[in-house]
UniProtKB/TrEMBL annotation:
Entry protein name: DUF674 family protein
Pfam families named among the record's database cross-references: DUF674
UniProt source species: Thlaspi arvense
InterPro entries hit by this protein: DUF674
Length: 457
């Protein structure tokens, strides 16, 4: 049904509409469109934030602030220039697969390799054009590397779903292979047993509509209705209270990041955190995670409303193996302390050139001046940062301590500093809260402070 590739592709979508309530009951779509819908889940959070900022300036939880912090921080606050680039333009291991989509919101040149202009003697390459070769020159030249077996996508027919089936999509984004039985069940379940009240509409969906749909999945429980019937701009994400459930198994040797929370006692509120680079790296990793990985790590997709429904359908209908749903991110996102349940792919030590000799692949976080076994972070080592409740990050060297305290607008007598330890449990809550609320620190960490205050009395 798609006319051509790229930004200008259009699909036809058949909507079944409850004409009285002005609400979409379900949509019938081809597998090409279902692939596009599922591809929204494969976008890294940083990419979603950037696309939605361009599209009607809409924001997602605290992630938009996190992204803006990366934009505003100077190159000196990062380990290398490429660290900033890889956070502003995050890449996903599914980029190659997404090249075959009929409509791709975010085409990337994911498999390109870069090197300096004297690369044949330096013998080094990087995934990013902002990396600096150990010889001192910028690695801005794209070089011809042979595509490895791991980069070749084997499914030829379809991208995520196989075959030529038709699908139905409910207003809250459950996707299933179309059958009369399912359509009837759905009609009955929304009280549309009387067919006279139900109409059918054929709509065109192109780049703009998919963007609006992307915006709606974060802000509405009825994204199809809001995209095609209301055509209004939905408000930002409704702030939900995020339940911190401690269902994650604790291990004795668990990794921990220690931070200082500046607490306003009588309001029982965390105002800011003072932290080192490991905690900032943890937050920055959120931007590199594809939406599907956020849900996978959370393990609690019902918290995410219709995004959770879409994710469940993605897993059920996907032609690829279930193991591909583990939260796997490219090797260059590996940090020293990995609190979240993420797998970083192994960094290949070299890439073979098209015309022969291999070149060494560097870690763009260290520009090639590293021990191959040592993982680096994004933020400059030995730096102190302040993080606000809504995840604005400020390097502390850019502001005096007194100035900072004054900005908090509190009496010194009302402020207290509490040291807390962030484990996998808190890191996971923080990830969920960064997407679902505009008060991530308090939603995810207040319990920890409350316990500490209680223990002290
Ligand atoms: Zn060089």
């Amino acid at each position: 049904m798609a006319k051509s590739c790229g930004e200008h592709s259009k699909f036809s979508l058949r909507l079944v509409v409850d004409e009285e309530k002005k609400k979409v009951v379900l949509a019938e779509a081809c597998s090409d469109f279902v692939d596009v819908l599922f591809s929204l889940l494969t976008l890294p959070m940083g990419t979603i934030v950037r696309l939605l900022e361009k599209h009607r300036k809409s924001e997602i939880g605290c992630l938009s602030n996190l992204y803006k912090s990366v934009v505003e921080m100077g190159i000196d606050d990062f380990e290398t220039e490429a660290c900033k680039q890889m956070l502003l333009y995050p890449r996903s291991l599914r980029d190659v697969q997404c090249k075959r989509l009929k409509l791709n919101l975010h085409p990337t040149d994911g498999v390109k390799m870069f090197a300096c202009h004297t690369w044949r003697s330096c013998n080094m390459c990087s995934n990013f054009s902002t990396s600096r070769c150990p010889c001192g020159k910028l690695m801005e030249k794209a070089i011809p590397v042979r595509v490895g077996a791991e980069d070749v996508d084997k499914i030829q027919n379809g991208v995520f779903v196989r075959g030529r089936s038709s699908f139905i999509i409910t207003d809250d984004l459950k996707v299933a292979v179309r059958s009369i039985d399912l359509v009837l069940t759905e009609l009955k379940s929304v009280g549309c047993g009387d067919f006279s009240k139900v109409g059918e509409r054929l709509v065109d969906i192109g780049f703009e509509e998919v963007m609006t749909l992307l915006q709606c999945i974060f802000s509405s429980n009825a994204p199809l209705t809001d995209t095609f019937l209301n055509k209004r701009s939905p408000r930002g994400l409704s702030t939900k209270t995020c339940e911190t459930t401690s269902t994650y198994k604790e291990r004795k040797t668990e990794e921990v990041i220690t931070v200082s929370a500046i607490v306003r006692k009588h309001e029982t509120k965390i105002l800011h955190l003072e932290c080192g680079e490991d905690f900032v790296d943890l937050l920055f990793t959120f931007l590199a995670l594809p939406l599907e990985s956020v849900l996978e790590i959370s393990g609690n997709s019902s918290t995410f409303g219709c995004i959770g429904n879409l994710f469940k359908s993605f897993k059920e209908l996907s032609a690829t193996q279930v193991s591909t749903f583990k939260a796997v991110i490219p090797h260059y996102y590996k940090c020293q302390k990995q609190l979240l349940n993420i797998i970083t792919e192994q960094r290949p030590s070299w890439k073979r050139l098209v015309d022969g000799e291999p070149v060494v692949l560097i870690d763009p976080k260290s520009d090639g001046n590293d021990q191959p076994t040592q993982a680096r972070g994004f933020a400059k080592r030995d730096t102190k940062f302040a993080v606000s409740d809504d995840l604005v990050i400020t390097p502390m060297n850019s502001i005096s301590t007194f100035c900072f305290l004054k900005k908090l607008q509190a009496q010194a007598s009302d402020l207290e500093v509490k040291e807390i330890s962030i484990t996998k449990t808190e890191a996971t809550s923080l990830l969920e809260a960064s997407l679902l609320t505009s008060s991530a620190l308090n939603a995810a960490l207040w319990n920890l402070i409350a316990k500490k205050l209680k223990d002290e009395t």
